[in-house]
Write a structure and sequence with these properties.
Elements lengths: L18 H7 L8 H9 L12 E7 L3 H9 L1 H7 L3 E5 L6 E6 L2 E12 L3 E6 L12 E10 L2 E9 L6 H23 L13
Antiparallel strand pairs: 1-7, 2-3, 3-4, 4-5, 5-6, 6-7
Helix pairs in contact: 1-2
Length: 199
């Protein structure tokens, strides 16, 4: 299945993160066409302001909202596109949301809001490396659905000053959601790739 099945939803927004484009461009097996890459990159938008730093990623996925929701919350699915990371939670407000990679907890988050399959909010608190000392930031995901297409809007804000988490997220979120989209539309997530964080 080609990623360019929904060109009417193409938006002319600039991509502050180049990770998505580079990751897709690295696929040379013919499964993703150059035209697909062009449309796909246009689906992603990054916003960052000096006064209130934040990440916003918007993309369109050729799948119902319920399917996208399951891909965001089912640990057996998340580990397929989230680099072997399971998202483990009861998905009840106030309960923990753990990111578990290869048996190790990498993030200890808290569920703030759950409206299935439309809206999900949680704190974001990595507990490893240089990120461990930062206060929690906040992530929200909004799913809008129409005619078999889901618009996924991720907004990540309330970062600490000079946040290392923010710098990592400028690469991480677009690549991660790109891999989710690839999994749902093509049946295969993106291969693991590493890119330097933007300054």
């Amino acid at each position: 299945m080609d990623l360019w099945l929904y060109p009417p939803f193409r938006t002319r927004t600039s991509v502050g993160l180049v990770g998505t484009c580079v990751a897709l461009g690295a696929l040379h097996d013919g499964s993703i066409r150059p035209r697909a890459v062009r449309y796909f990159v246009d689906f992603c938008r990054f916003e960052d302001t000096v006064d209130e730093p934040s990440c916003t990623v918007v993309l369109y996925i050729g799948a119902p909202a319920e399917v996208v929701w399951d891909a965001l919350t089912d640990p057996d699915i998340t580990m397929r596109y989230w680099h072997n990371t399971r998202l483990e939670s009861t998905w009840l407000v106030g309960d923990p949301l753990l990111f578990v990679r290869n048996g190790d907890v990498t993030d200890r988050n808290t569920i703030l809001e759950v409206v299935k399959p439309q809206r999900l909010r949680y704190t974001f608190k990595p507990v490893f490396g240089d990120f461990a000392s930062e206060a929690p930031s906040h992530v929200s995901m909004i799913l809008d659905h129409d005619n078999g297409v889901t618009r996924l809007t991720l907004h990540h804000d309330q970062f600490a000053p000079d946040s290392a988490v923010l710098r990592a997220c400028r690469i991480g979120w677009p690549m991660l959601l790109s891999s989710l989209k690839s999994l749902l539309e093509c049946g295969t997530p993106l291969p693991h790739a590493t890119f330097p964080a933007e300054a």
